[in-house]
Amino acid sequence: MNLSPKIEAFVMHFGEMGSRWGFNRTVGQMYALLVINEKPLTANDIATALSISRGNVSMGLKELQSWQLVQVQHQPGDRKDYYTAAGDIWTMAKRVFEERRKREIDPTLTLLRDQLLDAPANETEAFAQQRMREIHDLLEGVTQWSTELHNMSPETLHKLVKLGSGFSKVLELKDKLVNKS
Question: Which of 51, 121, 143, 148 has a CA-to-CA distance to 137 between 20 and 30 Å?
Answer without folding.
Answer: 121
